[in-house]
């Protein structure tokens, strides 16, 4: 890997040279790519208990897409599938120099998303330098990586704004075109052989879009494959594309040179009525609009005609071209010694920590948060000014306020952590920039200064002014207890945010749970009903309050209650939690401290990782498969013998309960009964029951024969006995409704 890296110092003197050479050209080939997703649909199945059923149906997104992408040619195609970032069911063949996508191939691949997913408070230079430190190999020194990032900034024309922050929707920063170039620069830092871009010109004016595409042309001349999607480009941009793939509802309509697209459609009878941008014309065709006819029926006919024309005129020739293209496998992609990660775990954690601190420097010790903490602290000081044990209720209230206020405050701070960074985490994990563990550790550590400094300031102000136990050790124990509680609440917020990943929903859920913890904390309610008393064992407020009470009071301590002296431990707000069991509370908080963070970490594992095949649910090298109770093979479709006996020996039902049980398995075969009764009483007709059992043990026709007529049987009587069913040759093909048997 080190031998293949170009000389950084040489690039510094001649920045454009970083785009001249590439690790190894990549030939991208895709053949009959079909992508299917599962769409969950809610439905009611009025069966035995009329319970809700979750049924899943599949929707085909890509329908047999074929193409080839040799180096140095711009391609428009299906980025998520081709870039190895697609979950779901993907069929067909996608190869990179003759090999499937792998973690090694990911190191040579760049992917620019449609939305510019960048940290808004980092400058252009900081963004690219941190990316270089994370993605460039550890064989390079830090200085060499920085020089490389500066060379990319120069080449992409970002020198003028190098010290300007990226910005966002509510934060002024660089322009849209500059932001897009920063996104491209992040991927160019690794000198990729294959670069994917998802609509890089969307939202940009024509001049800026022209500059972006010109940069991509320069990259392509260096031997890279550039694959991009684009929506309605200008005429200038369109004729810059060497290869164009036109899609409509997952079907290919054209694949070839951009300069030949108008001639092709003219040859099959589709020409614009007036002079127009080729991309506008193609967009109309993709939507089924031909000439000035906007009718819906004609749109479907146009789409079908274009798809058939592609299959008859282009598809076979394209498949032959794909088969003839040399994969040109390079040894660089066969390097089994190439490490998965460019940097070590410690380097990743350190760099991510530095980046996080710089990104959130505007938030650390912000005037608003410090002012809020100081204001609440002074208010508490005024309300609890120099209280003593004669006002035990007041002191207990202050200690419980400690646990409540510093339970909610870090909770809401932490809840927003991962939802706000979800897109960035997804993008960077998909690129293989770092391990999730290094990100998680650096992110949680980076928030500690603010999370711990503010409660420390609050405790220093209120502890001494409120007249709590005037001993340094007691103050220290109270402070450590408060900070311990803050860390647990922070972990709880991280877990809620990582699980829900929606700021509004997570805030509502977190506030409800924390409020439950507070109410069961032992101060507001001393006699919690037994059926809900378990909440106090998992209540952060209860354990914190108990430990804080222990820092101030001890067994045998007294206070004046009217004209007599009472034991502190008998005071209701203290007796409910007791002065013993401090070790149990410490252990409970320690368990929650770890458990909540483990939950957050596990929840984050699903982010940025495409769905993988579950091999435990797959079968290989088998002759038959069991599907919906039938044994399916390449030669036949027969009923599973294991189920036949149970059906054949089922006794004839004579009660509503028995009818229910049998109906659970036979309801969908009832329309095949030749003489179904008009009504069903407690006794089902014997002949009907026998015929139902026969149909249950006889394989139905699964696939329709389009050379034979179809019959639609409709339940006009609405008795609920016969369903609306599509038949062919007496066999049911599809059902359109579900009704109860009686």
UniProtKB/TrEMBL annotation:
Keywords on record: Membrane, Transmembrane, Transmembrane helix, Transport
Entry's Gene Ontology molecular function annotations: ABC-type transporter activity; ATP binding; ATP hydrolysis activity
Main location: membrane
Topology class, membrane: Multi-pass membrane protein
TM segment ranges: 364-385, 397-419, 440-464, 476-499, 506-525, 582-602
Keyword Hydrolase in record: no
GO CC annotation terms, alphabetical: plasma membrane
Protein name: ABC transporter domain-containing protein
């Amino acid at each position: 890997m080190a031998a293949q890296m170009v000389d950084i110092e040489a690039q510094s003197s001649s920045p454009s040279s970083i785009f001249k050479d590439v690790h190894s050209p990549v030939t991208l080939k895709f053949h009959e790519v079909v992508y299917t997703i599962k769409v969950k649909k809610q439905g009611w199945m009025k069966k035995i208990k009329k319970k809700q059923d979750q049924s899943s149906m599949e929707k085909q997104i890509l329908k047999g897409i074929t193409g080839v992408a040799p180096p140095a040619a711009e391609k428009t195609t299906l980025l998520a599938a081709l870039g190895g970032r697609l979950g779901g069911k993907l069929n067909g063949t996608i190869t990179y120099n003759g090999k499937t996508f792998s973690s090694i191939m990911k190191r040579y691949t760049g992917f620019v998303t449609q939305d510019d997913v960048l940290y808004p408070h980092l400058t252009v230079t900081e963004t690219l330098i941190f990316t270089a430190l994370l993605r460039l190999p550890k064989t390079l020194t830090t200085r060499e990586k920085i020089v490389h990032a500066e060379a990319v900034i120069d080449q992409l024309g970002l020198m003028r704004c190098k010290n300007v922050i990226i910005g966002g929707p509510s934060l002024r920063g660089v322009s849209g075109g500059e932001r897009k170039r920063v996104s491209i620069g992040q991927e160019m830092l690794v000198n990729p052989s294959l670069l994917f871009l998802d609509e890089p010109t969307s939202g940009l004016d024509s001049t800026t879009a022209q500059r972006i595409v010109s940069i991509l042309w320069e990259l392509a001349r260096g031997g890279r494959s550039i694959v991009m999607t684009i929506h309605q480009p200008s005429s200038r941009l369109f004729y810059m594309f060497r290869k164009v793939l036109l899609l409509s509802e997952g079907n290919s309509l054209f694949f070839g040179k951009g300069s030949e697209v108008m001639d092709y459609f003219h040859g099959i009878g589709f020409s614009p009525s007036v002079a127009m941008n080729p991309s506008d014309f193609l967009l109309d065709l993709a939507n089924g609009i031909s000439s000035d006819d906007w009718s819906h029926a004609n749109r479907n006919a146009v789409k079908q005609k274009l798809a058939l024309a592609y299959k008859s005129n282009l598809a076979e020739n394209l498949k032959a071209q794909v088969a003839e293209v040399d994969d040109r496998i390079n040894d660089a992609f066969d390097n089994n010694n190439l490490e998965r990660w460019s940097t070590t775990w410690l380097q990743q954690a350190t760099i991510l920590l530095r980046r996080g601190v710089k990104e959130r420097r505007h938030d650390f010790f912000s005037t608003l948060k410090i002012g809020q903490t100081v204001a609440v602290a002074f208010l508490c000081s005024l309300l609890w000014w120099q209280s003593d044990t004669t006002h035990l209720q007041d002191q207990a209230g202050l200690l419980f306020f400690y646990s409540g206020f510093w339970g909610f405050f870090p909770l809401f701070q932490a809840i927003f952590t991962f939802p706000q960074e979800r897109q960035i985490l997804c993008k960077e994990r998909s690129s293989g920039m770092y391990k999730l563990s290094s990100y998680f550790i650096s992110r949680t550590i980076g928030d500690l200064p603010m999370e711990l400094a503010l409660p420390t300031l609050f405790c220093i102000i209120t502890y001494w002014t409120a007249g709590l136990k005037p001993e340094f050790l007691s103050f220290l124990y109270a402070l450590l207890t408060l900070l311990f509680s803050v860390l647990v609440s922070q972990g709880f917020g991280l877990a809620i945010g990582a699980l829900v990943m929606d700021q509004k929903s997570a805030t509502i859920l977190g506030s409800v749970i924390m409020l439950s913890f507070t109410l069961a904390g032992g101060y507001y309610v001393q006699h919690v009903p037994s059926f809900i008393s378990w909440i106090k064992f998992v209540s952060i407020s209860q354990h914190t309050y108990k430990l804080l009470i222990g820092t101030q009071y001890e067994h045998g301590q007294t206070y004046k209650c009217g004209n007599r002296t009472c034991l502190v431990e008998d005071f209701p707000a203290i007796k409910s939690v007791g002065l013993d069991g401090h070790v149990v509370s410490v252990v409970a908080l320690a368990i929650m401290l770890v458990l909540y963070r483990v939950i957050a970490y596990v929840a984050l594992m699903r982010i940025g990782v495409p769905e993988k095949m579950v091999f435990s649910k797959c079968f290989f090298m088998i002759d038959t498969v069991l599907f919906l109770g039938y044994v399916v093979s390449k030669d036949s479709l027969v009923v599973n013998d294991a189920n036949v006996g149970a059906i054949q020996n089922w006794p004839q039902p004579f009660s509503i309960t028995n009818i229910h049980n049998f109906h659970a398995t036979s309801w969908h075969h009832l329309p095949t009964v030749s003489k179904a009764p008009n009504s069903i009483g407690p006794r089902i007709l014997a002949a009907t029951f026998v015929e139902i059992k026969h149909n249950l043990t006889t394989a139905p026709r699964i696939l329709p024969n389009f050379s034979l007529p179809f019959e639609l049987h409709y339940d006009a009587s609405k008795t609920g006995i016969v369903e609306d069913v599509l038949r062919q040759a007496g066999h049911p093909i599809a059902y359109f409704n579900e009704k109860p048997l009686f």
